Amino acid sequence: MWFYDTTINYVGHAEHWDHVEIEGDPAAHDCMVTYRRNDKRLAVATVGRDLDSLRAEITFEEETPI
Length: 66
Fold this sequence. Notes:
Number of helices: 1
Radius of gyration: 12 Å
Shape: globular
Structural class: alpha+beta
Order of helices and strands: EEEEEH
Distance between the termini: 27 Å
Helix content: 10-25%
Strand content: over 45%
């Protein structure tokens, strides 16, 4: 998804979380935000980090039983 000149991606699903990890610099439009509950990764939002978003998507797909 594009917002002006910034790419924002979101994978997973997090309605409720108890911990958020921010890697990078949101002000510079270069970060990854991981939402966790009970140490389980629920979702990942990325700003300007398409490769990190794809990696997170692959990991979620591998962790999800069919």
